[in-house]
Design brief:
With 334 residues, the chain is of the alpha/beta class. It has helices spanning 30-33, 51-59, 73-79, 102-109, 118-131, 133-147, 175-198, 207-210, 237-252, 273-281, 288-296, 301-311, 316-333, and strands spanning 23-28, 62-65, 90-94, 152-156, 202-204. A five-stranded parallel beta sheet has the order 2-1-3-4-5, sandwiched between helices. Helix 2 packs across helix 9 and helix 5 packs parallel to helix 7. The protein is elongated, with a radius of gyration of 21 Å.
Length: 334
C-alpha cells in the first residue's frame, strides 16, 4: 500500500490532513508519470511504480500526482500548476523531451537508413532546445516558484538511452544514430541543469546513475522497443527505483532507504517474431514512395517487396530470415 495518494486534483491525505511538511506535487511528462513500468492507471498513465509514488511511499509524503504522458512545458503551465500553493512542501519534475520532439526523433531514427533522416530530425530537435527551450523553462520555473514559494523543487534530466548496440530486430538504429541521440540528450540535460541552478532548484542528474543500464545493457533500466509500443524508450520499474533514489534525497535531504525496494522488473520479455514483423510492416517499406527511396540508395525494389512478403508469412523461420536480411541491407546501405 502506498503512503501517498494518486490524485488529479488538490492534495488529499490518505489517513490524516495534509500538512505543509507532507504535501508533494509531482509535475512533468511521461518520465515522471511512470510510463515504461507496465502499470497504466489512467489516460495520463500515472503508474504506482513511477518514481513519484515510490518517493512518497518511502518518505511518507502525501502525493498529488499531476505528471502526464506527452506533456510539454506549456502543458505543465496550463494543466498542472493549479495543484501548487503555499502549503506545497516538495515538487518534482522532468520536462522538455516532448518540446524537443523526443518521439519524432526516435520514430525517424528507428527506420532503415534509406528511409531515415535521423540527422535532420535530431537537428530539428536541437534547434528547439537551443532557441526556444531556455525561454520556456524560464517561464515555467518562474511560475512554479511563484505558485509554491516554500517548496523544495527538484528538476530531473533524462538518462542516455543507448550504449552503441541495437538488439531489437524491429528497429534499425545504427551506432551513429545512437551516438547522435545520446549527444542531443546530453545537450538538453546540460540546459536543464543550468536552468535549475538559475532558480536555485535541486538538479537531479540521471546520467551517471543510469550508466550501464541503457537499452540492450545486461541490466536494462530503460525499455527498448516494447509491446505495447507506448512502453518503449522509458525507464522500467528498476529505472524508476533508480530515479527515486535520486529524487528522494534531493526533495527531503535524507538518504533513500538502502534496500527499501526489491528490484521488481523482470527482464524485458523479448517481443515475439510476429510482433517484430508487425512493427516493421508498419513502416510500409513497400509503399511507392519508400520503394523509390530504396532505389535511390541502390536497393532493388523487388528485393524489398520479397522481404515484405516474407514478413507476412506464417512460418517464424521465414519471418526471422526476412528481419535478418533487412538488417543486412540497412548496414550495407548506411
Amino acid at each position: 500500500m502506498l503512503a501517498g495518494v494518486l490524485t488529479d486534483g488538490p492534495p488529499r491525505a490518505a489517513n490524516a490532513p495534509a500538512t505543509a511538511s507532507s504535501v508533494y506535487v509531482a509535475l512533468g511528462d511521461s518520465y515522471s508519470a511512470g510510463v515504461g513500468t507496465r502499470d497504466r492507471q489512467d489516460d495520463c498513465y500515472r503508474s504506482p511504480y513511477g518514481y513519484p509514488a515510490l518517493v512518497a511511499d518511502q518518505y511518507d509524503l502525501t502525493l498529488d500526482y499531476q505528471a502526464c504522458t506527452g506533456a510539454t512545458t506549456g502543458d505543465v503551465r496550463a494543466d498542472q500548476l493549479a495543484a501548487l500553493d503555499g502549503t506545497t512542501a516538495a515538487v518534482s519534475i522532468t520536462i522538455g523531451g516532448n518540446d524537443a520532439g523526443f518521439t519524432d526523433v526516435l520514430t525517424t531514427c528507428a527506420l532503415p537508413f534509406w528511409l531515415s533522416d535521423c540527422t535532420g530530425q535530431v537537428d530539428r530537435g536541437l534547434a528547439v532546445v537551443e532557441d526556444e527551450l531556455p525561454g520556456r523553462y524560464n517561464d515555467l520555473f518562474t511560475a512554479i516558484r511563484a505558485a509554491a514559494p516554500q517548496a523544495t523543487v527538484a528538476v530531473g534530466d533524462y538518462p542516455l538511452l543507448f550504449q552503441g548496440e541495437d538488439c531489437n530486430a524491429a528497429t534499425f538504429f545504427s551506432p551513429q544514430d545512437e551516438a547522435q541521440i545520446n549527444a542531443a540528450t546530453g545537450i538538453l540535460d546540460d540546459l536543464i541543469g543550468a536552468e535549475a541552478a538559475t532558480y536555485d532548484f535541486r538538479f537531479v542528474e540521471a546520467r551517471p546513475g543510469f550508466t550501464g543500464h541503457a537499452i540492450c545493457d545486461d541490466a536494462e533500466w530503460i525499455n527498448g522497443l516494447s509491446n505495447p509500443v507506448t512502453e518503449s524508450y522509458h525507464p522500467n520499474r528498476d529505472g524508476n527505483i533508480g530515479y527515486a533514489g535520486l529524487f528522494g534525497p534531493a526533495l527531503t535531504g535524507r538518504p533513500y532507504p538502502a534496500g527499501s525496494q526489491v528490484r521488481t522488473a523482470r527482464p524485458r520479455p523479448a517481443p515475439s517474431v510476429r510482433d517484430q514483423a508487425d512493427n516493421v510492416l508498419m513502416m510500409r517499406l513497400d509503399s511507392p514512395a519508400n520503394l523509390a527511396k530504396a532505389r535511390r540508395h541502390g536497393i532493388p525494389p523487388g528485393r524489398i517487396r520479397t522481404l515484405v512478403r516474407m514478413l507476412r508469412a506464417d512460418d517464424p523461420a521465414t519471418v526471422r530470415s526476412a528481419l535478418t536480411a533487412l538488417h543486412r541491407l540497412d548496414r550495407r546501405a548506411g
